Amino acid sequence: MKKALVMMMALGLSAAAAYAGGGLGVYGSFMDTEDLDSGFGAGMKFKFDVVEYIAAELRASYVTKFDDGSDDLDNLYMIPVEADLVFNLPLGDSPVTIFAGGGGGYYVLPEFETDSFGGNTDIDLDDTFGFYGIGGIEFALAENVS
User: What is the pTM assigned to this prediction?
Assistant: First the structure.
């Protein structure tokens, strides 16, 4: 079920990129949360230029492997669906671009099981809205894929 949901979101973003003529990218992510510690994941983004060095992005990812020092969060995953604005700084004629920005998102936290309370316990966390900052290096593989 989890993989099917992520694949459907990826297909939707791919269709949007093809329709709008924008750019599609994949990325790795690291999330350090206040309540759940840190997690790792991957995602896809659809990016379109607003003006020459400013772009808007729509992102969807799958974050898991939250590490609180025990096995309590092994089954926990999160699906962030986000929108942001980024400043892009191309490095000359190379396919490399440095970027930084921020935005907001909706964070889906499905129910998960844990053994930390003396047996299998289902925990249902609330979905939430949040804000984030991003930064990194983008490498263009083709005109609309990075």
Answer: 0.67
